[in-house]
Structures are given as structure tokens and as C-alpha cells.
Design brief:
Blueprint: E1 5-6, H1 11-37, E2 81-88, H2 95-113, H3 118-123, H4 125-139, E3 143-151, E4 155-164, E5 172-177, H5 186-196, H6 198-205, H7 213-231, E6 235-242, E7 247-255, E8 263-269, H8 275-278, H9 282-288, H10 297-302, H11 304-316, H12 319-323, E9 326-333, E10 337-346, E11 349-359, E12 367-375, E13 380-389, E14 394-404, E15 409-416, E16 421-428, E17 434-441, E18 446-454, E19 459-466, E20 471-478
Helix pairs in contact: 1-4, 1-7, 2-4, 6-7
Length: 479
């Protein structure tokens, strides 16, 4: 027998309504049958309003026929509460299904026992057990009631032993359907679904009799949906269940949130490559990040590191990256408009073009500086710099070397070819935004210090002071 079902978001409420309707129909049918047979009635209206409150009257607290407490008042000596103990032969089910079986049997038992006197239940235990067995058998298809027992009291205890009927599900194949996700992201989501959700989804179905799938499927779907939503934030799932020839649970993953990545922007940062050269590769980086479009923001935020690694591998495989030995490290700023900030540096060359605007009464004229360097070793750079003064069209040259003590500290020496002087300098970066530089010019016997703060990838401010008491502000634009 094949059984293929799909879920919707209203499945839990629909399942509860269908279960309640089945209970009501079974109770009505069995009540009518018991009345015709002369047995205890499930619900008997009072014979007359005047006699309703009299002990032993029809419908009163002592009525031995009143097994349904739906509209009756509960007396102090009546059954106030019902607890249920269920034993399952042939292996355990998932706790979600076990709890639903217990709650269903409890609902039936409460309709039969609440408000009834314990001694009356004890006298009619066989008939009450027959009613309970018949109703449970009708409602919980796929299970046979093997044994019932009732322990009357202020808190009645009902014990039921069930046995699965027919074939039970043993092996489950969880098959994800990721058609709503970009093909390049499917391996990532499939791996997360396999490790985070698939074992729990298979456990939901394992051990369920195939005849019970009619009422169990909506419960499996509701619990499975919660599992998928916890494993993949921002996504939800619908399910298709097929039990022949092999039980297969198809998980259709779709975005749940309305907040998805709708647009992608690209930014570049580099200490060794001019931004003028990097900006022309913006469309190529945007194409690499295209799989992010349509992804739920919640998922991208929760899995930012994995998505950054995916982009980093894509960039490392690029021909230009391999040819010039570039290191590209992407960083995601996740929102509906997501920005990919690429920190790119070369292991072979260093280049920089910047414009300096000096502000102050003692400030020197503006300059445009071009820096070109070649890495002799991973920590030693040999470089040349040219300084263009636009106001006078003056041009000067420096050559020198830089040695990186660490990622944040460097020492350097510059030879001023025009002024025939030598400068020693050191650079320290406490953070990515703040920099400190000290430079000593031997020819002029002058010490200059700078404190810089980077506003963004293009602009930074510097406060410059010298040993002669001069100081000014400098706006630096990284080109």
C-alpha cells in the first residue's frame, strides 16, 4: 500500500480537528450501541429539572449510568482527574507520537470517567473497558488494544497496552529537495540538513505502523517542520511521505522569512593594491556572490562564516588571483542589501596611490603619492615612491625598504633622491582604523609624528606634528 502525503502550514490544527471529530463520531456510535444493548450510557440527559440535583437521580452525581462529565457538576467524592499509562509492544515510537497517543486516550478516558463515582466505575469496569477499547481502536488506527485496566479513585489511573498492526516502518530515507536554493549553495544546505535534522526526521517515522500514517503524518510534519526550522534558520519545510517500496521522507526546503537578500554590493580594501585597479573587478565579485541573492537574512547571519569560506574558495580559484598570488578575504555585512567587503593583498607586489590635502597655517602644499614595491621576502619590501606637488608641478623621488616585524608593526628606511637625505621610520597599527607613524630625517634633524584614523576604504584623517612645534591636519584619499 503506497501512501504519499504533503503538508501545509495548517497541518497541526487540521490534524487536531480531524482527531477530535473521529473521537466524537466513535463516542456517539458506541453510546447508541450501548443504549440499545442496555449497557451504561455515555451521556444521559436528566429526566426532569426538579430531580437533577437529587443523589441517584437521572443525571445527578450518583447516577450509575452517567459516564460522560461534559455538562455535569463534579461532586467531592467523584473522579476528579485521570492519568494514563500506555505500554507499546514491539518497540518505542518517537516521543511526539507517544504523547499524542497518551493525550488521545486521556481525552477518551476523561469523557468516560470524570465526575463518576469510583464505586460505580468499579462495578461497571468491564463495560467501561469495552467502551474504552472500542473507541481507542477506532481512533488510533494501526494499533490494537491488547489490554486495559482502570483503577478508580479520586485520581483514576487507566492502563492501556497497545500492539502495532501490520507492517511498521523500519528504514527511512530522508531526501532533501533544495530546488528553491541556488545550485552552488545546495551542497552546504544538504550537509547541514543531513547532520542537523535528518536523524531526528528519520526517528519521527521509524517504528510507525503503515496503517497509522493516516493520523500520524500531520504530527510528523509539524514536528519535522520545527526540526528543519531550527537547523536552517529562515527556512521552513513541507514533506512528502511514501512508504512503498522503501519509506521515503521528502523534505522540500523553502524560505520562510520575508527578509531575504535582494541586492549585493561590493567594497574593496587593500594595503598593497590601488583601489583604482581593484574596482574594475567589482562585477566579477558580485557574480561570485550571486548565490546569496534570495537567501533568508536569518540564515545568512547564522552561517556567515561558512558563506565567507565559500566565497573565499571561489576567489582563490580565480585565474587572476593565482597569477599574481593575491590573498582575497571576503567579509559579509548581511542585510537585505548585503555588502561583500574584499580585503585583497598581493604576496609579490605592493602598490598605492593617494592624494594628501594638508590643512593649517603651517601645513605643506598638497601632494599626490604613488608607491610601487616588490616583496624580496615575505617580510621585506623594496619600494620606490614619487611625490607630485600640483601647485608647483614639483616631482621628487624616494627609494627604500620596509621590514614587517608583525602584521601590525613595521620598520623602514627611505632615501630621498632629490634632497640627498635619509629617513628612518616606524609604523604601528593598534587596529584596522588607527595608525601611528614616527619618522626621523637625518639631513634636517627633524622628527615628524602622525596619528591617523581611517573613516572608510577611501578616506582617512591624520594629525601631523613635528619637533619644531609645527602641526596640521591632513586628509588622505586612497585612490
Amino acid at each position: 500500500m503506497a501512501c504519499t502525503r504533503t503538508s501545509g502550514n495548517a497541518a497541526p490544527a487540521g490534524a487536531a480537528r480531524r482527531m477530535a471529530a473521529r473521537v466524537r463520531r466513535a463516542m456517539i456510535l458506541l453510546a447508541a450501541a450501548l443504549l440499545l444493548a442496555g449497557g451504561p450510557a455515555v451521556a444521559t440527559p436528566p429526566a426532569a429539572p426538579a430531580a437533577q440535583g437529587a443523589p441517584g437521580a437521572a443525571g445527578g452525581p450518583g447516577d450509575p449510568r452517567r459516564l460522560d462529565s461534559g455538562a455535569a457538576q463534579v461532586g467531592p467524592g467523584d473522579i476528579q482527574q485521570v492519568s494514563v499509562r500506555v505500554a507499546l509492544d514491539g518497540g518505542a515510537l518517537h516521543s511526539v507520537l507517544t504523547e499524542r497517543i497518551i493525550s488521545t486516550i486521556r481525552a477518551i478516558a476523561e469523557r468516560l470517567l470524570l465526575g463518576r463515582r469510583p464505586d460505580a466505575v468499579a462495578r461497571a469496569e468491564a463495560q467501561v473497558g469495552q467502551v474504552l477499547t472500542s473507541v481507542v481502536g477506532r481512533v488510533l488506527s494501526g494499533f490494537s488494544v491488547m489490554e486495559t485496566s482502570i483503577q478508580p479513585g479520586r485520581e483514576a489511573v487507566v492502563r492501556v497496552r497497545l500492539r502495532p498492526v501490520g507492517r511498521a516502518v523500519q528504514e527511512v530515507e530522508v531526501a532533501p529537495n533544495l530546488g528553491a536554493v541556488h545550485p552552488r549553495l545546495r551542497p552546504l544546505l544538504a550537509g547541514q540538513l543531513s547532520t542537523r535534522a535528518a536523524p531526528s526526521l528519520a526517528a519521527l517515522v521509524r517504528g510507525v505502523p503503515t496503517e497509522a500514517l493516516e493520523w500520524a503524518t500531520p504530527i510528523i510534519e509539524a514536528s519535522g517542520r520545527e526540526t528543519v526550522e531550527a537547523a536552517l534558520p529562515g527556512f521552513t519545510a513541507s514533506f512528502g511521505l511514501q512508504d512503498v517500496p522503501l519509506t521515503k521522507l521528502t523534505v522540500v526546503v523553502t524560505p520562510k522569512d520575508s527578509r531575504i537578500i535582494r541586492d549585493i554590493g561590493v567594497r574593496f580594501r587593500s594595503s598593497s593594491i590601488p583601489l583604482l585597479l581593484l574596482e574594475q573587478h567589482g562585477p566579477q565579485v558580485a557574480s561570485m556572490a550571486e548565490p546569496l541573492r534570495g537567501l533568508p537574512v536569518a540564515y545568512a547571519q547564522a552561517n556567515r562564516a561558512q558563506l565567507e569560506d565559500l566565497l573565499a574558495r571561489e576567489m582563490a580559484a580565480n585565474e587572476l588571483t593565482r597569477e599574481y598570488r593575491l590573498i582575497a578575504r571576503p567579509a559579509l555585512s548581511v542585510a537585505e542589501t548585503t555588502y561583500v567587503t574584499v580585503v585583497a593583498d598581493s604576496l609579490l607586489y605592493r602598490g598605492r596611490i593617494e592624494a594628501q590635502l594638508n590643512i593649517g597655517a603651517q601645513a605643506p602644499p598638497p601632494q599626490i603619492i604613488a608607491h610601487v614595491g616588490k616583496m624580496a621576502t615575505p617580510t621585506l619590501e623594496l619600494f620606490a615612491e614619487t611625490y607630485l606637488t600640483p601647485t608647483t608641478l614639483g616631482l621628487t623621488w624616494d627609494v627604500g625598504a620596509r621590514y614587517d616585524l608583525s602584521e601590525r608593526t613595521a620598520l623602514g628606511l627611505s632615501q630621498h633622491l632629490s634632497a640627498q637625505g635619509v629617513s628612518l621610520w616606524t609604523l604601528y597599527r593598534p587596529s584596522n582604523e588607527v595608525s601611528l607613524r614616527a619618522e626621523y630625517n637625518w639631513a634636517q634633524q627633524l622628527l615628524e609624528g602622525r596619528l591617523g584614523y581611517r573613516l572608510n576604504s577611501f578616506l582617512s584623517w591624520e594629525v601631523v606634528g613635528t619637533s619644531r612645534g609645527e602641526w596640521w591636519l591632513r586628509l588622505v584619499s586612497n585612490l
